[in-house]
Specification:
The structure is a single chain. The protein is of the alpha/beta class. The protein is built from ten helices and 15 strands. The protein starts with a helix and ends with a strand. The relative contact order is 0.11.
């Protein structure tokens, strides 16, 4: 198959399925992942509505350009599982936990289910509710609000107002980027507000961030890294970050 024909077919797949991974396209067209990456680079240069991300690409929505949760769940899986495994030792029986709509928090929820922990989970994530909904030992509190399809989460005033009624032992939240100058940021102001309220109403606050998010910054300011009791990541970050965490007395777990 000629490259031009393969690119045309990939574009059709993206238009129809809204998101694709490099590995799935590689298997579908029987070419290397590096070839698919080059194809996606060409596609995103010619079509600004298609967004290239590490491990895949997706069609940006008219009202919401966030990467669809279905795609995020398939990317950097090993990294997210590594972070979830680091979190599980911080959870105790009968804890109350606030979990955001990040896919890293979702993998933590899967691990909580697997371990059979007896806890209370407060979340704005429909996916986390789906994972835990048949666990008799887990008390679930789903925060209502405006439903955001790309993230399968609830946002807005009703969500933050509901959060005001609860207090938790620990919150586990993620972000879109973490930057030495601009701090912890998110590409959604509404999600940022939910995460800030979770931080405010939790005794301990943990930031879950994989290595690809270091050095990136986005629209909405969420917090300063030093506001967290610990930053949990998958690999040791660069020396500049080690210096920062030491200077701000922020615990780093990796």
């Amino acid at each position: 198959m000629l490259a031009v024909e393969r690119i045309r077919l990939i574009q059709e797949v993206i238009q129809e399925e809204k998101q694709v991974s490099v590995s799935s396209l590689s298997n579908r067209f029987q070419v290397s992942e590096e070839t698919i990456r080059r194809d996606l680079e060409k596609i995103t240069k010619s079509d600004p509505t298609i967004v290239r991300v590490h491990g895949g690409a997706y069609k940006a929505g008219v009202f919401d350009s966030e990467m669809p949760v279905q795609l995020r769940e398939t990317l950097s899986v090993d990294r997210k599982k590594t972070i979830a495994n680091a979190c599980i030792s911080l959870i105790h029986v009968n804890d109350s936990l606030m979990l955001d709509c990040s896919t890293t928090a979702l993998y933590l929820a899967m691990l909580i289910r697997q371990r059979g922990y007896s806890v209370t989970v407060i979340t704005n994530s429909l996916r986390i509710i789906e994972v835990l909904q048949d666990c008799d030992q887990i008390k679930l509190i789903l925060l209502g609000g405006n439903f955001r399809r790309n993230t399968q989460s609830f946002i807005g005033y009703d969500t933050t107002h509901a959060l005001e009624q609860y207090r938790a032992d620990r919150c586990f939240i993620s972000c879109t980027g973490i930057h030495l100058t601009f701090g912890v940021t998110d590409n959604s102001e509404n999600e940022s507000q939910v995460r800030q309220m979770m931080m405010q109403n939790s005794k301990e606050r943990f930031l879950l961030v994989d290595t690809y998010k270091f050095g990136r910054s986005y629209l909405s300011c969420l917090a300063d890294p030093s506001e967290f009791d610990a930053v949990i990541t998958d690999v040791k970050p660069d020396s500049d970050w080690i210096t920062y965490f030491d200077a701000t007395h922020t615990r780093l777990i990796y």
